[in-house]
Every structure is written in structure tokens, then in C-alpha cells.
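hiii, so i know i said id send this last week but things got crazy w the move. better late than never?? heres the sequnce for the chain we talked about at the cafe, plus the structure i predicted for it. fair warning i was half asleep when i ran it
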Amino acid sequence: MGWRYAQVHPDPGPPPPRPEPIDDPPDDPLRDVHVRVRSPMLDRPVKIIATGTGVFGGLVLACGLLGVLPWKFAGVGLLACLVVLGITGYQSWQSERALRARLRQERERIDRERQARERRLLAAQAEHAAAYREWERRRRAYENQREWYPVAVPPEADRVDIVGGTLAGWSAAVTTMGAARLAAGARVTVLDFSEGAVAGDLVRLATARGDDPLVWVLPGDLPRLDLSSGLSADALADVLSLVVGAGEEETSTGDLSLDNSILERVISGVFGGSATIPQLTAALRALAQVGDPRDDLRRGLITEEQLARVTTMYGRGATDRIVIRRAWALEAQLRKLERLGTEPVLLPPSRLRVVSLDRGAGVLTNRILGTYVATALTHRIRNSPSATRWEHTVFLCGAEKLRGDVLDRLIDACEATGTGLVLLYRSIPPHVRERLGRRGHAAVGFMRLGNAEDAKIAAEHIGTGRRLQVAELTDTAGAAISTGPPGSAEACYASTIAYARVRGDALTDPVWAPLPAPAADDSVLVAGISSATAWGRTLPATGKAGGSRELLVEPHELQELPPTAMIFTHSAATGRRVLLVDANPGIITLPTTHSQQLEEVLQQCHPPAEGGRDALPPGGTESPSPEREPSPGRTDFRSGRP
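okay and structure toks below
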């Protein structure tokens, strides 16, 4: 379906801060301690007494030396001074001893604190180194991660309804899904009623790969288109009766039954079960009493016997006005198909077939041609044997132009035979709204809606208020597409069968080259998208999405979706899933594209825990191991899903 933007590895943020270093110690860390510890232990009176005693002893000694005092008195005085000094000195010595002990304790405490700080710093540095290594690993994983994951159609789905979108958006979606199916070896049929050549890039891509696509541009290639060959009379009448009602509102069962009865009677009763469109219109003109039947007799479209059968089919004179009116309507509509299959050609085998409508034709003509192609293809699908699901994929672009009963028949036929069906609607008229996501297992994708009413219906279907993630690359690529779409939305198809050899040519039948084998990976597809299309040129070479923004599901937001953005929703075993998908086919060329879906990647990273429950984290922050991760930009198409 496209690509989903997601970051398995979140932004690691800034690096962890470095731990703070140890503060430089002061010049004398014990100076303040010395003053604080010594002051309370030294007694000021002791100091005064010791000082006074020393001064007095000096005077006594001086007086003794000078003979002022006898030595007996001087000796007694000196002895008394020595006793006092001894007492005060011992007390001072005790104080200094205590001071040294306290200082030693303070030094030991300071050393212990410094060693503790050093240990904490070493531990913090080791922790910072480990945290920084982890941050570097997460940063490398964040910068080198792949941001785009493929989104596949769920296995149980047999149809996809895509609503809204521009021609460039349709071109992206058809190219992305169709290229994946072709690479898987499946057959792809595109009915392009958009008149915008939305499968042009897919045609160029298939041509570059060697698939030799077959392209019909109607009504120019109508003589070389024969979808109704081999149909029984009943089936042909059924197809043509639906074609007649293409230009009308959905008719009643009675009108459809009457048209079918008239055509079946003409084909079986008049022409013996096999008739061309010109023969049918000639018989209907005779039945409706339009023009001169002798003109058709001269042209060889009808014989006298067949004309007699027609005129007597509903009674002579064909007086029933209802039959005349319906026969006239049948002839008026089927005249536009008179050239159908008049020039059958030999066509080579091809996996891609495109039937488109020329915008130069009339609106009613294109509607009739589109109804015929869709109805005839429905009968061919119904008669085809059942095959692997999605082995044959049908894209119907502009499906809102077909009536509801025509769509119902195509949906039922594809579901019964396992044919994958992708219906693209530009708008949501009432008959589309009734069938959107219903009738079988259908997934729904919403692209840019054109008007407010359609956007309101889409918002109700998705769920108003839901928040989705839009990559910046989706917005920037959408802005580049709006100035000049890189796809083929503004181009025209070139018919590939206009000069095909007519059947019955005397030349020897050509030997067709074998079709290329299914791709083992997407390397060929990547090269083809890069060379044959211009989608990858609007994307950055690095492949980085450049961030994302949040989108709130509201009607006005759905009217401003980027051209390639698609809100994809479907029912799953775990509940209803709503994803925002980018259908840009150029994303597969980016180096940031993953080969597995996001759920598969997370499942590999976090296998189910015991008991069978998934052990996936909500954020999905881990990535698959390198040995299990596929090579970059390689998608395995062998799963058989688009």
C-alpha cells in the first residue's frame, strides 16, 4: 500500500553531563581549625600569670646580680618563680598536646573526606563513561536507523477502497501497488476511467522491466478490444443490458429484466446465439421501427429471414410501445459499441493490461465504454478458475462513475475467484458511501478529499479526533508534486496495440519472448523506479524524513492532506488499525527504507513472552540484531501480498 514513517530508536537527546571535579583545597586547610581548636583550651589568666612570673623572676635575678637583694632572698624569689612557671608551663604543655591531637584528628578527617570525594568522583566518571558509551550507541542507532516501513494489505482482505486523492496521488498509489504485484509475478489489470493516465508510470516501469504492457485507449482501440468474445447469449445479453443503463440512474429490476429479455431474444432467436454489435443494432432498429431496414439489408447486417423474425417477435407491427421505447434506447446506446472487436489482433503475453478512456471522447460515450469494459471483465473473472489470492489484481480508477449494481457484480466476482480488487473513488456519492468498506473483507484508504461533505464522511469513518504522525518528507515531497507532478497524471497514454498484427495474417506467428521471472528482491524495482519514473527525484538523497508533525483527524485536515498521504484503516485480530501511509513509490529508493513491516521488526526485537503474549515495549526502542536484519532497501515480494 505504501510506506509508514516510524522511529524505532527515539532521539537520545543531549549527551550526559560530565561529573563535577573536586574543589581545590585552601592554602592552609588547618588554619581555621587551629584557631578554632586552640582558643577554648588556652586560659588567658594562665598566660598572664606565666608572663608576670617570668618578668618578676627576671627582676629578681637582675637585683641579685646588681647586689640590690641578697642572694638568699633572690634565690627564694627565683625558686618561687620557677615553681609558678612549672605549674603554668605544664598546663600550657597539656593544652598544646591536646591541640596537636585535635589537629591530627582534623587532618585524618580531611584526608578521609578527600579520599571519599575521590572515590565518588572515580565512580561518577566510570558511570559517566558507561552512560556516554550507551548514549553514543543510541545516537548512532538513531542516526542510522531506517525510518520507512512497508505497509501491506492484510492477508484476510480481498479488496481495497481508496477514496479521494488527486491525479498525482492516484498515480503514486497505482504505481506503488501495481509495481509490487508485477515484481511478485502477479497479473495486473488497470481500468483507468479517470481520464488522467494515472497508470502511466506503471506502464513505463513494466516496459523497462520487460513485461511488454498492453494498453488500449478507447474509443480509438475499440476495434482491437474484444472482451465479449466467447460469452454465451445469456451472458452477452446481461452485459449489454447493463451497458444500456450506464447513462441513466440505477434502473428498476423491471427495466433491466425487459432489456435483458429483448437482447436475449434477439441474440438467440434471430441470430442463433451469436451476433456482433452491428447486427444487434440493426435488429433493434427494425424492432423499434427506426429508419429504413432496407439500408441494413444492403449493408449485409441482417437478412430477410432475420428481419422477418424481428418484426414478428413481439407481434406484427410491434405495437407494444414499451418494447419500442426500450428497443430504441438499446439501439441508441449500443451504437457506440458498433466498432467493438471488428479488427481482432494477435497480442503478446503480458502481466500488465491497461484499458483507458480518451478524454477527447464524449462524457456519455466514456460512461458507456467504461460500463461495458467493467461488466465484460466481470463475466471473464467469474468464468476464470480460482487462483491464489491477489495473483490477479484489478485496479478500477474512477469507480464512482459506475453504477452501484455494476460495482456489486465486480466485487462479488473478484471475491469468489480470489482476484484482488482496488477501487479508487474521487468522491463519495450516495451509492459509494453505501459500499465503502463493506461487502467482504475490505480495507479503506483515504487520500486528500475534495469537498467538505466528503471530508466529514471520511472523518466519521476514520474516527474524529484521532492523532496521526506525518513525516516532514511527505509534506515537502507533496509541495514539489503540487508545483509539477513527477508522475504521469498530466500525460496521456500511448496505445501499444494500435499497430498490432491482425489475426489471420499470412505471416508466421511470432515467437514471443518469455516474461521476466518474479523478482527475488526489489533491486530491479528500485532501479526501474529510479530510471523510468521521476518520483525519487523529489526526495532527499540521504533519505532522512527530517522529523514529523502531528495530524488531527478532522474534516479540514483531510482536505489538506499531502498528495501522496493516505490514511489506511482495516480490521485486525487485535482491533481496528489506523495508519498514515505515504504512497510515494520513490521511497523504496531511499537508504532509510526497511524491508519488513514495523510489527515484524518489533516482534524480532522482543519475542513473545511465556504465555503467548507479546513482550513489545510501547515505544519500541530496540532494533533487530544485525545478523537478522536484511540488507538495506531490499523487499521480499515472495509473500504474494501487495
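btw Residues 156-224+352-500+533-587 form a domain with the Rossmann fold fold (CATH 3.40.50). thought thatd interest u
miss u guys!!
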